[in-house]
UniProtKB/TrEMBL annotation:
Identification of the protein by name: PBP1A family penicillin-binding protein
Pfam family, one: Transpeptidase
Catalytic activity: Preferential cleavage: (Ac)2-L-Lys-D-Ala-|-D-Ala. Also transpeptidation of peptidyl-alanyl moieties that are N-acyl substituents of D-alanine; [GlcNAc-(1->4)-Mur2Ac(oyl-L-Ala-gamma-D-Glu-L-Lys-D-Ala-D-Ala)](n)-di-trans,octa-cis-undecaprenyl diphosphate + beta-D-GlcNAc-(1->4)-Mur2Ac(oyl-L-Ala-gamma-D-Glu-L-Lys-D-Ala-D-Ala)-di-trans,octa-cis-undecaprenyl diphosphate = [GlcNAc-(1->4)-Mur2Ac(oyl-L-Ala-gamma-D-Glu-L-Lys-D-Ala-D-Ala)](n+1)-di-trans,octa-cis-undecaprenyl diphosphate + di-trans,octa-cis-undecaprenyl diphosphate + H(+)
Matches recorded under NCBIfam families: PBP_1a_fam
SUPFAM superfamilies associated with the record: beta-lactamase/transpeptidase-like (SSF56601), Lysozyme-like (SSF53955)
Domain of life, per lineage: Bacteria
Amino acid sequence: MKFWQIYKEATKQQKIRWMKKWGLIVAGCFALSFVGLLLLAKLMGPPALLVPQTTIMYAADGSKMGEINNGGQNRYWVPLKKIDKHVINATISIEDKSFYKHNGFDMKRIGGALLADLKAGAKVQGASTITQQYARNLFLTHDKTWRRKFQEAFYTLRLEMSYSKDEILEGYLNTIYYGHGSYGIQSASRYYFGKNAEELSLGEATMLAGIPKGPSYYSPILHEENAKKRQSIILNAMAEDGTIKKSAVQKAASDQLTYVREEEEEVATVAPYFQDAVMRALKKELNVNTNSIQFGGLRIYTTLDPKMQEVAEHTIENRIIDNSSIQTALVAMDPRSGDVKALVGGRDFEQSSFNRALQAKRAPGSTFKPFLYYTALEHGYTASTPIKSERTTFAMGDGVGDYKPKNFKNRYANDFITMAQALALSDNIYAVKTNLYLGPKKLVKTAKKFGIKSELASIPSLALGSKAVGVLELTNAYGVFANGGKKVDPVFITKITDSKGKVLYEHKYESKQVIDENKAFVMTDLLAGTFDEKLNDYTSVTGSSINHYLTRPMAGKSGSTPNDSWMVGYSPQLVTGVWVGYDNNEELHDVNDTGYSKRIWAYFMEGALKNKEILSFEQPEGVTAVTINPQNGKLATDSCPITRISYYEKGTEPVEYCDEHGASIEIKEKLEQKKEEKGFFNRIFSW
């Protein structure tokens, strides 16, 4: 009160002096504040440009197979050089003509907007530059408060200090909202016109440039008349700025534009179970956090072969009857690299997202026997080693009840059979006797070498696949045989980049020799025998129902339990595992249920490798081929009605000739010839 009394009584000169004094003080305070603001902005450095972006998955051939976005918001980042020049010029003409001249704030435009607002008595004209709008889109809400305006100014300063004009413009065009869930020019281009941002015409570019002012009001899909008026304003502004010729205005305005609304078209989901596997690998193996996956704009390059995946899905769809509730899983890999080429985790992802290829564990049955017979090869067995197959009761002792394994349909040779026959016929008696002879702990140890991580038990029935394993796990283990004894890890992701192409992760392929190369090849020959009818004359080999489908070298093994049906096998360039069963673990119903896995495997392998080079399994130097009588595993003579070329490690091949077909003289002559070849010293000291 006293101050105002003094002011009223002061002379005019005194009042002027006071006004100048206080004016200088206020101006000084503003100047100091502005300098302080500039220093603070400089000290804080560039603001982090945390822009939510859509993550994209790509198949091995470069095709897009899936997207992960933020609640239906499509966001893609493209560099400025990949954006059509008409979009850039149109945006600058209508949003910020002086963009490349000012330092974040257009003072002339701000002054003009203030005058317009004062005349109208309300806010009628905006004065935000592209940098200010970018700052608002990145960091702030759109509330019209002084606090928000101050924050916007501060972020604008930081952006202009830390980034070039082109970087700011690129960011703006990649984050501005164009309506219909499309953020950024690439998303808008794809949605409205089904094109990339670098492929737009002048008419399309100017139509898009007008949308951000009012994404609903200026949407050409919702309000085409409004959009056309806005487009006309932009075209005339560009002509005034000299970025287009005046003659182009009318032509572009009259162009008939076609709107495709791309993401509203029904797009088939590509390999949903494989995509689920990729997500699991991202989180569990590569430790990529969920926010980065959902909002990080990652580019994830995978191993999926779209053609093989299509064959897998169509094979399953066509082989299993529609009204069956039975489920299945399939995994196909390149055994040389570990690349997973196809994966199916169930019959319908929308009905059940449970990924049986990765999450389910089921008893593998006889598909576990190859690990037993590899163990046997390590301990002196060969393909010709005979053991009697007959109904057998094993007295376990130590308080354990007797163990009575059975063969399928209670079929027994009631005679000696070779290991090659035992595997081809899936003889359970031979397998259990071998497991007990070697000691069950050895089988557990061998399985671990092959990469089986599921919990196993050192029990007689482990030889018959009584302990549950996963489909991917078992398929990868068979790949060790196909890969000459080298183990590789399953690979789903080869590379990850950010939206600008910077490599964040790249898979390094490695392999480890875990079993002997020669024995791995011998096992492959034994597994090829499951399709060879020559190996037995009293019952069919387990692959007889599908061997007529196979047109190239293949090796594999089927397996079954009352609840599960399996087939796992390989060619030199592809290993595939198939499981079929019921989710509730009910028993398989009939011959159709038990036969699905083999038929799916055979049709898939042939379809997946169609038009691919036919490769043979490469024989190592330490392996020799001999002609045998497959019914007894002995060297064949001219009198043997059936012969087969079989493979053995050098030094383990049979030396005894078959004498079951009245050829004793011939046999003696050949034995004498072999003695002569041994030489004098070895004949004398043969012991």
